[in-house]
Amino acid sequence: MRNIALSLSLAVGLVSAPALAFPWMVKHDYQSCAVCHVDPSGAGQLTPYGRAQSDVLLQWKLKKPSPEEAQEPSPATRFLWFLDLPEFLNLSGNFRAGALIPIGSTVRPLFMAADLYGTVKVDRFVFHATTGLGLRNVGPAAILPQCGGDTACNAQWIAREFWAGATFADESVMVRAGRMFIPFGLRNNEHFMWVRDTTGTDTNLDQQVGVAASYNGEKLRGEVMGLLGNYQLGPDAYRERGYSAFAEYALASKVFLGVSSLITAARADPLFQLPQVRHAHGMTFRWSPTEPLAILAEANFLAWQQPGRIDRLGFAALVQGDYELMQGLHLIASLEGQHTGQGERGPSFGGWVSAAWYVLPHVELRFDTIIRRITRQAPDPASTGVTLLAQLHFFL
């Protein structure tokens, strides 16, 4: 039963997993995410340049292409593999499905994402929106129907992002307003890892309405966002308001150090109906000692504050190594830990062994083995679960 419970907690995070983010691109001398992503801090829709680089640098090739060959991306980098779009319009799609296989339990099919992205860029002005289909109470991103509690939904119309912005200073600065990803920590692909879950900065579930300003320079990049809440959820008392900020600096070639900070306040938390202030402050590290290898790390201090007192203290941390055996075939090892301050007798730990294969243009096969040991409040014993996860991902 414990393995089943652990697997179900993973499934909750996996019912929606659309964002494409590769912090390990540091191995290819990419510090800034803005050149390849519409969002200036990374993840989500690729720019036309990003689509070309996904073909040149990500797609599986038995032989590493020569510098001349690397300059010529495949025609399949176009939308739907063959459609040319006008220069001002960027359309793309995202579909992800898979299976969760708890050891000792039944296989659970997963429908994770079916989204369409659209971006219009006119001069310095950028307009971006996503829409799609979600299954089984995707909650925070849902527009219609509204489900939750005793009401279950098989399908919902969702919108994860919609924002308008303008660029300045030769496009190194962007100011935006709308529903966006929260700037905090690593925008890694494993969206339900504890560094994303406990900080409330998952790119699938935790978008917020707000106003943001970003900067992408030669050595420094960062973004600050004023959080106004998720208006696709209610009542208003549950909506968190505050700020989130992230900055990263290039210490040397392929060595980057970042800092993150987030403070939000809500008039009521869903569990105890009490006002709550939430803190998350931490650091990130990205390093590529050799071209095939990237090492990523994130460590966050967490605090939950109720009126007049600090209610809980905790942490969430991740260390990950990504090794590219050959172009397009990655082996990934991750260690994670967390403590939520809810009376556990110690921290919980997890380990991941993963393989990602970018077998065709815009097609990824991924397999994860996930082991998590969850520490609970006394007198409940700690529980350990092993889960296999298989995914097929098309990013059109």
Offer a few descriptive terms.
50% strand; 8% helix; globular; 16-stranded antiparallel β-barrel; disordered N terminus; 396 residues; 4 helices; mainly beta; single chain; Porin
Distance separating the two termini: 39 Å
Mean pLDDT comes to 86
CATH architecture: Beta Barrel
Rg from alpha-carbon coordinates: 20 Å
Spell the H/E element sequence. HHHEEEEEEEHEEEEEEEEEEE
**Structural class of the helices, strands and pairings?**
mainly beta
What does this protein structure show overall?
- With 396 residues, the protein is mainly beta.
- The protein has a single domain (2-395), classed as Beta Barrel (Porin).
- Helix content is 8%, strand content 50%.
- The chain has four helices and 18 strands.
- The chain has helices spanning 2-14, 48-58, 67-70, 194-197; strands at 89-102, 108-122, 125-134, 142-144, 156-158, 162-168, 173-180, 208-216, 220-229, 241-252, 255-266, 276-290, 293-306, 309-326, 329-339, 348-360, 363-374, 383-395.
- A 16-stranded antiparallel beta barrel has the order 1-2-3-6-7-8-9-10-11-12-13-14-15-16-17-18.
- It is globular.
- The two termini are 39 Å apart.
